[in-house]
Amino acid sequence: MADADNETNTAARQPSRVVVVTAGGENPWIMINALAARFDDIVVLQEQPESKSLFLRRRARKLGWPTAIGQLATMIASRFGKRFTRKRAEGILRHYGVSGAPDPSVPVCQITSVNDAEAVSQIRQLAPKVVFLISCRLLKAHTLAQIPCPVVNFHAGINPGYRGLMGGYWAQVNDDVINFGATVHLVDEGVDTGGILYQSRQTPDRRDTMHTYPLLQTAASTGIAIAAVDDALKGKLQPLDVAGPSQQWYHPPMTWLWNGIRRGIW
């Protein structure tokens, strides 16, 4: 399996256009800033956040209302808890030399959803050599079919075993810390099922929790994102043959409290 370190490639900046699609936030901007430091022409399409009511109804249809409500409660607790882990978060940013502050020199275009016809039209007009996804909606099949260039995704989890959400947390819960890390992969019609391009692995600190796992995975993985985009621009994308069981994960329900109290995995 190929791993890439976090050192920014010092080769000349490339002029080919890269479109990044994201819902915004500190973690995506870590990646956007790293890409902008390496490639000359970065354009960001920023989605509007999905409403919690829509999330709840969709998750309830798939997993049932008790699980969906429990997951929503954990998400709310996670957002509230971030204020208590800011010191650790700042330490991660310093250690990897990254910033999650939006760079005003990077153009940002607001969109409702990447799956809207208007967003697809905008992507086609921008004519990128590669589209890079991070923390955005799942692309629908008809959207993906209309994008005439490679589409790659940054996923905070090791595929195929930790597809979906909270890959770092679930690796901890499963006593599988060797598979705590991140993946950059091609996008297909499934959930993180596209061909794996690069992976990176980290060892979480005892101070890390589900509030800082994704930050750690992102900050430590700018190198693999740069490598994948560079490959796409050069027409040299080469998916890896990665074997292993495949499973999709979701936000933890309120059993998160049990794992925290009994096992110290927050």
Mind sketching the topology for me?
Blueprint: E1 14-22, H1 26-38, E2 39-47, H2 52-63, H3 65-81, H4 86-96, E3 108-111, H5 117-126, E4 130-133, H6 141-145, E5 151-155, E6 163-164, H7 167-173, E7 181-186, E8 196-201, H8 213-219, H9 222-233, E9 248-249, H10 255-263
Parallel strand pairs: 1-2, 1-4, 2-3, 4-5, 6-9
Antiparallel strand pairs: 5-7, 7-8
Helix pairs in contact: 1-8, 1-9, 2-3
- Mean pLDDT rating: 90
Number of domains: 1
Structural class: alpha/beta
Number of strands: 9
The CATH topology, please? Rossmann fold
CATH class: Alpha Beta
Largest sheet: 7 strands, mixed
Please give a structural write-up.
The protein has 266 residues and is of the alpha/beta class. It is 39% helix and 18% strand. It has one domain (14-263): Rossmann fold (3-Layer(aba) Sandwich), CATH 3.40.50.12230. The protein has helices spanning 26-38, 52-63, 65-81, 86-96, 117-126, 141-145, 167-173, 213-219, 222-233, 255-263; strands at residues 14-22, 39-47, 108-111, 130-133, 151-155, 163-164, 181-186, 196-201, 248-249. The strands form two sheets. The protein has a seven-stranded mixed sheet with strand order 3-2-1-4-5-7-8, sandwiched between helices. β4 (130-133), α6 (141-145) and β5 (151-155) form a beta-alpha-beta unit. α1 (26-38) packs parallel to α8, α1 packs across α9 and α2 (52-63) packs across α3. The chain is globular. The two termini are 29 Å apart. The relative contact order is 0.19.
